[in-house]
Amino acid sequence: MAEKVCVITGGANGIGLATARMLAEQGEIVVLADWDEEALARSEQELAAAGAKVLAVPTNVAEKESVQALFAKVRQEYGRLDVLVNSAGICRLTPIDELSVEEWDLMMDVNLKGTFLCSQAAVPFFKAQKSGNIVNISSVAGKVGGIAVGPHYSASKAGVICLTMSFAKYLVKDGVRVNAVAPGPITTNMTDEWPDDVRERMGRNIPLTGRMGTVEEVANVIMFLISDQSAFITGEIIDVNGGVLMDI
Ligand SMILES: NC(=O)c1ccc[n+]([C@@H]2O[C@H](COP(=O)([O-])OP(=O)(O)OC[C@H]3O[C@@H](n4cnc5c(N)ncnc54)[C@H](O)[C@@H]3O)[C@@H](O)[C@H]2O)c1
Fold first, then answer.
1. 3-class DSSP state for residue 95?
2. How many angstroms does the Cα of residue 173 sit away from the middle of ligand 1?
3. DSSP secondary structure string for all residues of 175-239
4. Does the Cβ of 11 fall within 6 Å of ligand 1?
5. 39-59, pLDDT tens digit by residue?
6. In this predicted structure, what is the pLDDT of residue 148?
7. Where are the domains of the chain?
8. How far is the centre of ligand 1, averaged over its atoms, from the C-alpha of 88 (Å)?
């Protein structure tokens, strides 16, 4: 079969970029969609220099027009879509007492609405092809509520869990699988912004390793969900958290 066309939102950095690297190594076409244009150009260059088939599309996942332009570009360039990884996201530690409506809205717009808009835009491709694969990124915070991270982050990631199951149910008869990972704390730009003591405590509390996770440790599981190795799995949320939360 021809190479897969894979859109990775938030693909300029972190977990998205690690996934893009692995997909590119497999010979797939990777479309990086990110609003950080500097990092986007840098990551596109890095992947292209390694021989990858890569396209970078500046995108704000929170804006419908921007998302529509992204998927129009994918249709124009490749005429198909096989994989969508919704990794674009933001995180804030703002406590409840200090949380403004503006910050609440921004969080929901990027993490929850962004995941919805991109998944919705992928549906026409997937329904026409009768195949496709979506992987969303929730969080351990989306299962247990935020202590270090703010309530808006946790709520947005809980929303991503239900969105994952809703899209999985909606697309199941079309042969499309929709799953999510729920990472614990992972070392990326996102967590580099946390105060040292928070990062140190987060790492120390991971039973399996005593350190925060790496982007590769999450990307490996995303790759499993994209691959046929997980052909019988849909609507599932996989914990990738070093044992910090064990639930059913
Ligand atoms: N790092 C962690 O500890 C952790 C834990 C659980 C879940 N997650 C989730 O994993 C995903 C990836 O985060 P990361 O840790 O790799 O962080 P990161 O900051 O390295 O990557 C996030 C990327 O998303 C992009 N982005 C943010 N808002 C965007 C928007 N509106 N439109 C387009 N792009 C946008 C950023 O520019 C960045 O490149 C996020 O959804 C995050 O919430 C991260």
1. coil
2. 30
3. TEEEEEEEE--B-SHHHHTS-HHHHHHHHHT-TTTSS-B-HHHHHHHHHHHHSGGGTT--S-EEE
4. no
5. 999 999 999 999 999 999 999
6. 86
7. 5-240
8. 5
The one catalytic residue in 71, 153, 167, 194 is 153
For 90-137, write each residue's pLDDT tens digit: 999 999 999 999 999 999 999 999 999 999 999 999 999 999 999 999
Ligand 1 pocket, mutate which of 8, 9, 13, 152 (most atoms under 8 A from CB): 13
- CATH, range 5-240: 3.40.50.720
* Calpha distance 33→212 (Å, rounded): 26
pLDDT in tens, 120-179: 999 999 999 999 999 999 999 999 998 789 999 999 999 999 999 999 999 999 999 999
Query: What CA–CA distance (Å, rounded) separates 248 from 244?
Result: 14
Q: How confident is the model at residue 116, as a pLDDT?
A: 99
Instruction: Report the distance separating Cα 35 and Cα 160, nearest Å.
Output: 20
Measure the CA–CA gap between 194 and 49, rounded to whole angstroms. Answer: 32
* Nearest of 36, 29, 121 to residue 77 by alpha carbon: 29
